[in-house]
Amino acid sequence: MCQKNNQESLFHSIFSSKEKMLELYQLFYKTDSIDSEEIQIISSDEKGIFKTNDLVFLIENRCILVMEEAWRISETLPLRFLLYVTRVYERILELKHLYTYYRFPLPVPECIVLYDGEEPLYDGKKRVEEVTLKLSEAFSLKKEVTPFELLVRVIDIRYNRNSEILQKKSTLQEYSQFQHILLERYETEKDMGKAIEEAITCSLQRGILTEFLTEHAADIPSLFTLAYEKEFVRKIEQEELWQEGMKKGEKDGIEKERERIVSKMIHAGFSDFQIASCTGMSLREIEKVRLKK
Q1: Are 280 and 125 in contact (CB under 8 A)?
Q2: Residues facing 133 on adjacent strands
Q3: Separation CA 188–CA 191 (nearest Å)
């Protein structure tokens, strides 16, 4: 049952069951040899490391699947996911496992971010459907051989970008469609309540998330109106800021204007990684702009 919790996201509400988590896992790792009963849900912890839109599952004691939805890509993601994985290891391991002679078989961490931001993902200047973030990129001391690594897959699930992962009929595909419809309605109405009503009606007519929307239609406004609406508003404002700034920058072609755009993006909360991808500036150049603020 979808809980009426204004801190819970729609993403978490739809995918937090064993069956839906298994569907996601099979979608990304193309395996069908797992029973949903072999999945253990890792709930939020008392110290609040896990966020309300995070999904953390232990699959057959062989894989820790950590997944979250994001509208912005933060350079701190690998570090945060490291803390998630460490917390899970703390829960499943006993003290004796740390001091036995033979190795204890650890479940492999699989870390995924489902990216739903306006701007496409870029690897350098090339547009891609997936990028990999590395924990080692944050190390202050660079070495030829990285002594420790954690990888985070960032996968584009924006519906209008027609990514390969959404070609297959799935709950994720329908969720992406619903998000697309809702964002379109919100941009038109500027009222979250009306946007939700119209998005639900439109989605049901198209057969999108039919079972979930039929059963939980009354609960959905509580998932958006308070915590989620603020994110939608902030998301739209940031997208408009980026588009406005970049158009002016292209027209003027002046370095000063370029720095002004970057300053506004920094103020709006864009990460250096996003700014570099959007503007073509190096991280060193962006850091110089930050120091001027």
Answers
A1: yes
A2: 152
A3: 8
